[in-house]
Amino acid sequence: MPAAIDRSNAALLLDNQLCFALYSASLAMTKLYKPLLDALGLTYPQYLALLVLWQRDGLTVSELGERLSLDSGTLTPLLKRLETAGLVLRLRDAADERRVRVRLTAEGRSLKARARHIPGCVLQATHCEVAEAVALTRQIQALRDRLMP
């Protein structure tokens, strides 16, 4: 029976937890991004919101929240700070006044050029080849999708 006890104990070791590996990697990644984003005056969640808007400007707040997996209670203050910084505008949808659309300002669009170096810096810090980073990203996305209801 000692082997069963060892397996049972191994299952509860911190370093054997997938959740901890993902959590600690996320903390390390956020720490890596901090100085890169500080230079742009952005927080990590603001950067993520801008990445979405640089890809598709004019989303509704709910579409943006869905894309980022953020609820409106988290997203609204983030968007207010981006608006105060002059990077986005929140405008009522002309077709449906209940919806608010988020649009990049000229300054928000121009910030994209200043952020272009960030993915390369992150890739370099990972010491991964591009193909390895792409494969790892796809594996994590697949895991996330399996865990989402």
Question: How do the helices and strands line up, and which of them pair or pack?
Answer:
Elements: H1 2-11, H2 18-38, H3 44-55, H4 61-68, H5 72-84, E1 88-92, E2 100-104, H6 106-115, H7 118-126, H8 130-147
Antiparallel strand pairs: 1-2
Structure at a glance:
The chain is mostly helical and 149 residues long.
Verbal overview:
This protein has 149 residues and is mostly helical. It has a domain at 20-116: Winged helix-like DNA-binding domain superfamily/Winged helix DNA-binding domain (Arc Repressor Mutant, subunit A, Orthogonal Bundle), CATH 1.10.10.10. It has helices at residues 2-11, 18-38, 44-55, 61-68, 72-84, 106-115, 118-126, 130-147; strands at residues 88-92, 100-104. The model has no long low-confidence stretch (mean pLDDT 94). The two termini are 38 Å apart. Helices cover 68% and strands 7% of the residues. It is globular, with a radius of gyration of 19 Å. It has a two-stranded antiparallel ribbon with strand order 1-2. It has eight helices and two strands; from the N terminus they run αααααββααα. Strand 1 (88-92) and strand 2 (100-104) form a beta hairpin.
Which percent range fits the helix content?
Answer: 55-70%
Number of helices: 8
Distance between the termini: 38 Å
Mean pLDDT: 94
The topology string of helices and strands comes to: HHHHHEEHHH
Instruction: Estimate the strand proportion.
Output: 5-15%
Low-pLDDT residue intervals, each spanning 5 or more residues? none
Care to count the β-strands? Answer: 2
Quick one: CATH superfamily of the domain at 20-116?
A: Winged helix-like DNA-binding domain superfamily/Winged helix DNA-binding domain
Largest sheet: 2 strands, antiparallel
Kindly report the CATH topology of the domain at 20-116.
Answer: Arc Repressor Mutant, subunit A
Shape verdict: globular
Question: How many whole angstroms does the radius of gyration measure?
Answer: 19 Å
Looking at the overall shape, the CATH architecture of the domain at 20-116 is Orthogonal Bundle
The helix-and-strand class reads mainly alpha
CATH class of the domain at 20-116: Mainly Alpha
Major sheet strand order: 1-2
